[in-house]
# Entry
Amino acid sequence: MLKANSNLFHVLATGLLLAVPAIGHAFAHVVLTEPLAPPGARYVGHFKVGHGCGGSPTIGLRIEIPAGVRAVTPQTRPGWTLSTEGDGNTIRAVSWKGGILESGQPGTFTIAMTLPEKETVLLFSTTQSCRSGEEHWSEPPPQTGKAKRPAPTLAVTARTAATASVTVADGWFRALPPSVPSGGYFTLHNAGGKPVALSDVETPACGAVMIHKSGNGGMEHVMSLDVAAGETVTFAPGGYHLMCMAAKLMLKPGGSVPVTLIFSDGQRIMADFQVRNALGK
# Structure
């Protein structure tokens, strides 16, 4: 754990409050999707693994628990074996093994915990084991620039992130056979005075849903999408879009499905997306 000294805590906490995406979301392979929490809170940390090690699938994850964190309760993950390390009732590390995340497949590992009573910055040193090689995410964010191997970071602070006024419009999914990924499109507008970062999307209409971007003859997975104050981002064919994997029967033309957009400052925005046919009508 890093002590909340005047310089480092001010740099990290202020940076998280004013611009959550600044600490590694675009580059880190393991991040906390909720990087701010109040002192003494019962916190549920979602550690999101973006992809494997240089094309090799992820087969294990070990997360060290910082000193001062209590009542650690990790959650099981289907297909993975959960284990803990510690002294008596104090858990010092949590590991998942035996499963597999393909190199381009994201996954979330969850740990509930009680946070320290004082403001501080917590670093969760993480080892990502792959079929070929390992990645160690353990570096603290530097006061300038970006760390090459940043640890998942949580700012424990009584201050809260400024709530941005984010709106979602014109949302729709293209209905395709379940064996073919379906695209999702919408317009996102940040009318607030602070930047926000779209970090995840949930909908019961899909077995899994990811943020993707098409361009230069290919497609890439986007871990986190920054939206500046006053900016509008359009998700449309040929650009940013949602990739709906294993679409369920509720994705039928003429209907609608609920979608939740999740932001790195904890905001969750729900919207109804229309379902259109393969021609987008």
